[in-house]
Amino acid sequence: MAEILTSKHLLIKVSIGLAVLAVIMCLCALVGTQKISLEKALAGPGDKAGENIDYEIFVGVRLPRVILAALVGAALACSGVVLQAILRNPLADPYILGISSGAGLGVIIAILSGVSFSFWGGSPIAAFAFTGATITVWLVWYIGHFTGKSQVTGLLLAGVVINAFFSAVIMFLTSIARSQELRSTVLWLMGNITEKDFSELRVSAVCILGGIIGLFTISHKLNILTFGEEEAKALGVDTGQSKVVAFGLAAFITAVAVGLSGLIGFVGLIIPHGVRLVFGPDHRQLLPLSAIIGSIFLIIADTIARVIVAPAQLPVGVITAITGGPFFLILLARYSRKISWLK
Amino acid sequence: MSGIIEVENLSFGYMRRGLILKELSFEVMAGTFLAIAGPNGAGKTTLLNLLCGLLSPNAGLIKIDSADIDSYSIKELAQKVAVVRQEFVPVFDFTVTETVSMARTPYLGIFGFESKSDRQIVNEAMEATDTAQFTSRTLGSLSSGERQRVFIARALAQDTPIVLLDEPTSFLDLKHQVGIYDLLKRAQLEKGKTIVAVTHDINLAAQYADVALLLGGDCSYHTGIPQAIFLPEQIERVFGVKTFAGNVGEEKFFLPLGKLAKDVGIITTNTNRDKKQ
Fold first, then answer.
1. How many structural domains compose chain B?
2. Where are the alpha helices (DSSP H) in A218-266?
3. Proportion of chain A in helix, strand, coil states, percent, rounded to 5
4. Inter-residue contact A219 to A283 (CB < 8 Å)
């Protein structure tokens, strides 16, 4: 008889996913230019500071970076899941809708203007990213509604236009930047995961995990929203409230992710599709599993970016874009007929 | 005894288009089948959207189960009224079971998981609509008729006393049209549902409905038993088409007589041939 997702089944899948994530995190933290052994890395710091180099590298350098990649991957994947659901468009993601660019523009302004006030674990960048993302969401929302009845297409087009505009402003600001700022800005634009300290990660982790849990509470409503507003209302969903919560939290976690690691494209597109293909479109499992698999994907992509041209490092955005570009084209071909009814 | 749906002096018009419905009043008793018919643009779907709370009237009152429709929250109203719209294929590939189980949303807790009794209700609705055979198929892989049955299963699983349907058979062949109406009639008779169906097919409406509401397109309307509402002169006035009315047993049927068909004698061809022979 009919198979309906139960909380028990979901818990089992999420637990398995988290176990795999933990293993991947440990393995990827061991990989790098400096070879370290797991046994020594787990042996503890030793009596004197700096006595156990493997431990210092593992806990002090690699693990925070792996955790950072996991957080950013989870945030971008979940944001993609939510945006695709409320826009009823399988091609939506925070990057394509301009939310990442908005956050990015905020960060570029922070870097180039050299602001240095203390906020959110010491970095003003996250505050600028969040402001940029919020303004973008507001603009996309406003222009989308302004274009009339077909808000789904309107919102997507507004996102594309704003993305193009903000990208142009970012390019302009980059080209007038001083040379010493240029390299870090360009690297950041390409999506760059670097070592952060635990205090900064702690605040970001709370924000991202809190946002994902918030989105999970409306995940069953997202299922119905993909059928359209009229259907959702008929099934008892307060569509206005659900969309504001969904858009707001998606923008929030995207902004935190962009503030941490720059513009990393396609994670929000590839991961939800992959997970949907294997596990189906039920958002109650699509959201948590996309978070886990998004984390795993970005950890592996970052590990490749760290070692492929060692001792130099590639920005992780290069790896995700190389994987994501062709994937986007395949999706476009697959869904172009299906979304034609939105016109 | 008052009806489960009461509409009193209802008026509604879209901005800059004047009134579509004017001082409309009718009542639907619990457990009856109401068919709403009328020409395109007469306000049939608009009326359906008013009855499910998607639109608000400019004037007048709609009562569902003796209470003003505005007094219900969105969730409460979804426990009273289920809606089946004209069929469509959703963007994402939900399975039949996933789609039908969405009907339980108005009854779910914060994390939105169905209880054992919710799953039982979903299974029963699928059995009743003969969709249990499709459980793990996606909506996109079904035919129009099968998909419409799934949406009716969802409306039944919503466990509401009232089910509204907007042209439920518009894309279906004859066999599937009759199949859908049989299904609705069974839900009415066996489960005591109040069915309100917008339809273009006055023959099916006359056959299955207990009450009919004929919207005239000029804000006029007629309501009563189908035999009293669907009359050739009434249909000609409302739709602007002559009809031939006949009886098969106790059932009345209408055959629309197109001008072209009449002029070239298609209707009478058999008769002429019979005469020659």
1. 1
2. 219-225, 229-234, 239-261
3. 75, 0, 25
4. yes
B54 in any annotated domain: no
> Is residue B141 in a domain?
yes
A69 in Cβ contact with A206 (< 8 Å): no
Strand extents, DSSP E, A196-332? none
Name the β-bridge partners of B256.
Answer: B243
Asked whether the beta carbons of A171 and A163 are under 8 A apart, the reply is no
Instruction: Tell me whether residues B106 and A6 touch, CB distance under 8 A.
Output: no
B256 conformational bin, left if phi > 0, alpha if psi -120 to 50, beta if neither: beta
Chain A CA closest to residue B131: A2
* Cα dihedral across residues A36, A42, A47, A50: positive or negative: positive
Contact B114 A1 (CB under 8 A): no
Residues contacting residue A78 through CB under 8 Å, at least 6 positions apart: A211, A212, A215, A250, A253, A287, A290, A291, A294
Instruction: Name the nearest CA neighbour of A283 among A201, A210, A224, A197.
Output: A224
* Threshold 0.80, pTM exceeds: yes
Residue of A nearest to B120 (CA): A2
Q: Is the pLDDT assigned to residue A227 strictly greater than 70?
A: yes
Question: What tokens does A45 get?
Answer: 């710091």
pLDDT tens per residue across span B7-60: 999 999 987 778 889 999 999 999 999 999 999 888 999 999 999 999 999 999
Q: Tell me which residue in B88, B105, B126 faces A237 most closely, judged by beta carbons.
A: B105
Q: How far apart are CA B126 and CA B23, in angstroms?
A: 39
A94 contacts A78 by C-beta, under 8 angstroms: no
Exposed, middle or buried: residue A113 (CB in 10 Å: 0-12, 13-18, 19+)?
exposed
A318: three-class secondary structure by DSSP: helix
B218's CB contacts (< 8 A; 6+ apart) are none
Q: Of B117, B79, B114, nearest to B98 (Cα)? A: B114
Chain A residue numbers touching B135 (CB-CB < 8 A): 1-3
Containing structural domain, residue B116: 95-157
Nearest-5° angle of CA B159, CA B162, CA B166? Answer: 110
- Cα-to-chain-centroid distance, residue A41: 29
Interface of B with A (CB under 8 A): 49, 52-54, 74-75, 77-79, 81-83, 85, 88-95, 97-98, 100-103, 105-106, 108, 110-114, 118-119, 122-123, 126, 132, 135-136, 158
Q: Which residues of B touch A341 (CB under 8 A)?
A: 88-89
Which tokens sit at A308? Answer: 């492929």
Element (H, E) at A138: helix A125-146
Residue A22, pLDDT above cutoff 70: yes
Rounded distance between C-alpha atoms, residue A162 and residue A168, angstroms:
10
* B234 within a domain of the structure (yes/no): no
Strands B33-37 and B194-198: parallel
Give the integer Cα–Cα distance in Å for B105 and B112: 7
Pick the residue from chain A with its C-alpha nearest to B155. Answer: A235
Peptide bond into A281 cis (omega under 30): no
C-beta neighbour count of B270 within 10 angstroms: 9
| Domain annotation for chain A: domains and CATH numbers | 51-342 (1.10.3470.10)
Q: Which residues of A touch B95 (CB under 8 A)?
A: 280
Top pLDDT among B247 and B139 is at B139
pLDDT at position B262 is 55
Q: Residues near B26 by Cβ (< 8 Å), separated by ≥ 6?
A: B7, B213, B221, B223
Query: Looking at the domain assignment, is residue B135 inside a domain?
Result: yes
